[in-house]
């Protein structure tokens, strides 16, 4: 019998990220993945800037960037009749405009999932040696008040190992066995449209190098397809959409048929093409009606499945476990009440629904769900979803409202207005530390952080009093003393005066804010910190 605080089921990007995050919080975990290794297929590629912020906090950003493509290789999105023939339109995604890039210290990154996962695996294994088991499948799971009993089976030898865990993260993908075993209801639409994804080698630079893009949509009366850039040279994915509306079944996609369709979409009848693999899949748009089930938490595609139009599936999943990891750590370390874990669902599921809906509307706007006679360009929101990437505002017991209203924005999908209102992502602002430029984002995770203005000495003293092993690590930075604010923007962006203070959670979301100074900083901060951790004298006894 293996006894482990957290069992992670699934070694996709979400499970691997969960392993890294838990290790950073000093929590032991065991990850099981039924396949012999990481993904062989470059499904996701777009790692958005919020996920890159998470990877920056974990020290993984540079390695992910090195495995991906330089931003100048992917700046556009292009629509064509065929790559060699008429271009219909090209757009610069809203996410890539200088105004939107100023919202964060990081750029988004194009890194194909089969290049990303080995990087994540390497970091996860370095932090938790021997605790990632591939070729190992979860085959049974039950839970009671004392924990979760699972059985994991070695797929090579058939050996079954019982595992007892305090908590389980079900990152076992869209067909989640755990979700089925728990009989979880999904809200939304299943199987909205069908597609095949063809991985192939061909040198497409003559038709792409002068207009480097992440996506090249091909619009022909009898073929709706997309070339997805993998290495901007000779490795590509070719996605054919809504195949049944054009008279195909998945079985029709032999290597010969795939080659013919790729040549048709490029517009070069004798183009040398090597087909490497073909996978058929159905895009669904549905979300679990509950993310937490006792001691088991759904994350990633197990919790929400969405069309890839917008590139949100992986990103939303990584951000799920970013939300969950610090909560599990605080509870397992005895620093928070177990009811803190109940905040995972109300914080993440509404966002999962909003993102799934936006991804579906992107695909509907492109006519992906039916046969179309003429090209249909997507709605303006497509790839301009700054609001969904940065604008999440949580409401739960782990956030203490300060009575201020939500930022006044017309469109929560495309617009993001930096705000340090409790529940929001603590905004990015450039600061200076001993001559080095540093973002506020670089101060967050895996600890709690209190940022104060230059007259916040009593808040800083209060932090020292709260720094005991019975509470999660908390550090204070006085802006104007420990760090300087050369642009003079921090107070305006964070909505505080000289004496104000902002408590930021390890996932970079604001937990609590005092807009001005306070005579009784010690007890005010202690009660806020304890409330965020769902600690009451009664519960923590
Ligand atoms: C064509 C395409 C393009 C996409 N583009 C993007 C994009 O640009 N950006 C983006 O964010 N997302 C994108 N996505 C979505 C993205 O691929 C998924 O959201 C992502 O893979 C989900 O990660 P996950 O870890 O939750 O699940 P998965 O990647 O499915 O991993 C789950 C893992 O669990 C394992 N598993 C399942 N059951 C068990 C068990 N019982 N025991 C042990 N292991 C088990 C599986 O083998 C699998 O490895 C795209 C998807 C497609 C198809």
What can you tell me about this protein's structure?
The chain is of the alpha+beta class and 541 residues long. Among the domains are: 2-59 and 110-184 and 288-389, 3-Layer(bba) Sandwich (FAD/NAD(P)-binding domain); 426-540, Glutaredoxin. Helix content is 27%, strand content 26%. It has 15 helices and 24 strands. The chain has helices at 13-24, 49-58, 61-67, 98-101, 113-127, 177-181, 205-208, 255-266, 313-332, 344-365, 386-390, 457-466, 490-494, 521-532, 537-540, and strands at 2-9, 29-32, 46-47, 76-80, 87-91, 109-110, 132-133, 136-144, 147-154, 160-170, 186-201, 213-220, 223-229, 235-241, 274-288, 292-293, 296-298, 304-305, 430-433, 436-439, 448-452, 474-478, 501-504, 510-514. The strands form 5 sheets. Strands 1, 2, 7, 8, 9, 10, 16 and 17 form an 8-stranded mixed β-sheet that branches. An 8-stranded mixed β-sheet has the order 5-4-12-13-14-11-15-18. Strands 22-21-23-24 form a 4-stranded mixed β-sheet, covered by helices on one side. β21 (448-452), α12 and β22 (474-478) form a beta-alpha-beta unit. α9 (313-332) runs antiparallel to α10 (344-365) and α12 (457-466) crosses α14 (521-532). The radius of gyration is 24 Å and the shape is globular. The chain starts with a strand and ends with a helix. Bound molecules: flavin-adenine dinucleotide. Flavin-adenine dinucleotide is lined by residues 9-15, 32-35, 43-46, 113, 137-138, 171-174, 177, 197, 239, 281, 300-301, 308, 311-315, 317. Residues 9-15, 32-35, 43-46, 113, 137-138, 171-174, 177, 197, 239, 281, 300-301, 308, 311-315, 317 line the site of flavin-adenine dinucleotide.
């Amino acid at each position: 019998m293996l006894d482990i605080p957290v069992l992670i089921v699934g070694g996709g990007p979400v499970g691997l990220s969960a392993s890294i995050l838990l290790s950073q919080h000093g929590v032991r975990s065991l990850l099981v993945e039924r396949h012999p290794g990481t993904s062989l297929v470059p499904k996701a590629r777009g790692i958005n800037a919020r996920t890159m912020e998470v990877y920056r906090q974990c020290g993984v950003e540079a390695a992910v960037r090195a495995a991906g493509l330089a931003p100048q290789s992917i700046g556009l999105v292009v629509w064509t009749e065929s790559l060699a023939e008429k271009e219909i339109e090209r757009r610069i995604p809203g996410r890539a405009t200088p105004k939107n890039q100023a919202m964060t210290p990081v750029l988004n990154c194009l890194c194909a999932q089969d290049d990303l996962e080995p990087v994540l695996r390497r970091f996860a294994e370095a932090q938790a040696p021997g605790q990632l088991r591939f070729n190992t499948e979860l085959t049974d799971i039950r839970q009671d008040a004392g924990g979760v009993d699972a059985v994991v089976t070695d797929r090579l030898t058939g050996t079954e190992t019982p595992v007892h865990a305090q908590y389980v993260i079900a990152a076992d993908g869209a067909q989640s066995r755990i979700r089925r075993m728990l009989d979880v209801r999904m809200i939304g639409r299943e199987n909205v449209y069908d597609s095949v994804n063809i991985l192939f080698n061909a040198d497409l630079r003559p038709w792409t190098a002068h207009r480097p893009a992440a996506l090249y949509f091909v619009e022909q009366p009898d073929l709706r397809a997309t070339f997805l850039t993998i290495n901007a040279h000779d490795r590509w994915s070719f996605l054919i959409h809504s195949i049944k509306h054009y008279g195909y079944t998945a079985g029709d996609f032999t290597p010969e048929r795939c080659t013919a369709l790729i040549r048709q979409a490029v517009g070069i009848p004798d183009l040398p093409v090597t087909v490497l693999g073909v996978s058929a899949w159905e895009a669904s748009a549905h979300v679990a009606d509950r993310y937490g089930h006792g001691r088991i938490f759904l994350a990633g595609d197990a919790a929400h499945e969405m069309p890839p139009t917008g590139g949100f599936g992986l990103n939303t999943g990584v951000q799920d476990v970013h939300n969950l990891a610090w909560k599990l750590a605080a509870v397992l370390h005895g620093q928070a009440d177990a009811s803190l874990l109940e905040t995972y669902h109300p914080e993440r599921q509404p966002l999962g629904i909003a993102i799934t809906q936006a991804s579906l509307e992107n695909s509907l706007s492109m006519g992906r769900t039916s046969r179309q006679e003429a090209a249909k360009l997507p709605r303006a929101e497509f790839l301009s979803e700054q609001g969904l990437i940065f604008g999440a505002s949580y409401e739960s017991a782990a956030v203490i409202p300060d009575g201020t209203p939500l930022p006044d924005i017309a469109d929560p999908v495309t617009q993001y207005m930096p705000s340090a209102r409790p529940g929001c992502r603590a905004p990015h602002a450039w600061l200076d530390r001993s001559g080095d430029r540093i973002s506020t984002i670089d101060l967050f995770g895996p600890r709690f952080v209190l940022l104060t203005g230059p007259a916040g000495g009593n808040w800083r003293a209060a932090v020292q009093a709260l720094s005991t092993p019975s509470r999660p690590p908390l550090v204070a930075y006085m802006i104007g003393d420990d760090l300087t604010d050369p642009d003079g923007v921090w107070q305006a962006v964070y909505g505080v005066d000289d004496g104000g203070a902002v408590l930021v959670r390890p996932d970079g979301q604001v937990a609590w804010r005092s807009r001005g100074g306070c005579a009784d900083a010690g007890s005010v901060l202690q009660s806020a910190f304890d409330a965020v951790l769902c600690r009451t004298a009664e519960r923590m006894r």
